[in-house]
Amino acid sequence: MPSVSPLLMLDLEGLEVTDVEKDLLAHPGTGGLILFARNYRDRAQLAELVRQIRAARPDILIAVDQEGGRVQRFRDGFVRLPPMAALGRCYDDTPQQAVRDAALLGELMASELTELDIDLSFAPVLDLDYGTSTVIGDRSFHGDADAMIALAGAFIDGMTAAGMAATGKHFPGHGHVVADSHLELPVDPRPLADIEAADLRPFVALAPKLDGIMPAHVVYSAVEDQTAGFSRYWLQTQLRQRLGFRGVIFSDDLSMAGAHGVGGYPERAEAALQAGCDMVLACNNRSGAEQVLDFLGSHAFHGQVPAMGLRARPRRPMETSRRDAALALAARLTDKG
Questions:
Q1: Would you identify the CATH topology of the domain 60-336?
Q2: Is the pLDDT reported for residue 166 higher than 90?
């Protein structure tokens, strides 16, 4: 029987950890847990939930999507963060101030989570906004690569200041396609040269700052007929070799429609891990997550970067003056919409 590596990130059903979920968290194939809005009522409840999670698995990596705007799982009791496009609009008028503001918001977002012993927000989004993708849309900082690099780079600096690892998504760029990969399989037909000239630039520039990268469930059909998350070309040739990225590669959720083409959950997990992902996400489908754990129990994957190591960093509370400035900034940008 091969040794089991902690390569799966799964989810919970509600506000407390059930006995069944305690067993899932203790499984050696489980390495991470992602929280959703259904897991949150208020800060006291969340603190107790995290305590229960740590009691079942002390070293587990706890994550959430807390980008801001439409994608903010914890709301009441947390600062309402604006969509990142609000910073992009500010950048067009006052670029230097917008960069400083991006760092403030990145630090505020991260510090609110690390205060409750949550390790990761899967952020920032590095997809360029072409005005065509509704699933990306105002989650993107900007449609220009240079503006994206400046704003997202500052946001990462803010996260780093709070002691949180940063995960850029969705490599090599989800912003050009119309289809939502949660619901269908998007296809981007552009030549590789066009992708390299624009969408890849933020990943190339920011790879040294990133601790994690999440690939897109998008087929770049001029390159190959496989989604980036299942592609050795995108994950090994481009991301590892060309960009020299040595951090953690997280799959996007294997439950999304964009991942269905390679088979059931075991086949999806195998395809992602063989392509180069270090941790796979299986969310909102308990049976699927259990199938991945069964699969990991009978297969060995060697050389994977230990994603749980992202917990090993000092966490620093935000200085009062910076926090006050960030709170005022978030309120102002959120009010503007």
A1: TIM Barrel (3.20.20)
A2: yes
Distance CA 109, CA 73 (A): 12
Tell which residue, 135, 270, 268, 153, has the closest CA to residue 202. 153
Q: How far is it, in rounded angstroms, from Cα 304 to Cα 314? A: 24
Has this prediction a pTM greater than 0.85? yes
Q: Strand 187-188 to strand 120-121: parallel, antiparallel, or no bridges (unpaired)?
A: unpaired
Q: Which one is catalytic: 11, 199, 252, 253?
A: 252
**Average pLDDT score over the chain:** 93
Q: Is 182 a catalytic residue?
A: yes
Query: Sheet holding 248-253: strands in order across?
Result: 120-121, 61-64, 30-35, 8-10, 279-281, 248-253, 212-215, 167-171
* C-alpha 29: how far from chain center: 20
CA trace torsion 296, 297, 303, 309 (10° rounding): 80
At 139, is the secondary structure helix, strand, or coil? Answer: helix
Domain boundaries, the chain: 60-336
pLDDT above 70 for 337: no
Q: Is 175 exposed, middle or buried (0-12, 13-18, 19+ CB in 10 A)?
A: buried
pLDDT for the residue 1:
43
Catalytic residue among 117, 157, 182, 299: 182
Q: Can you tell me the distance from the alpha carbon of 330 to that of 81, in angstroms, rounded to the nearest whole number?
A: 6
Cis ω for the linkage preceding 170 (within 30 of 0): yes
211 counts as catalytic: no
pLDDT at 333: 95
Q: What tens digit of pLDDT does each residue of 175-224 get?
A: 999 877 677 789 999 999 999 999 999 999 999 999 999 999 999 999 99
DSSP secondary structure code for residue 249 in this structure: E
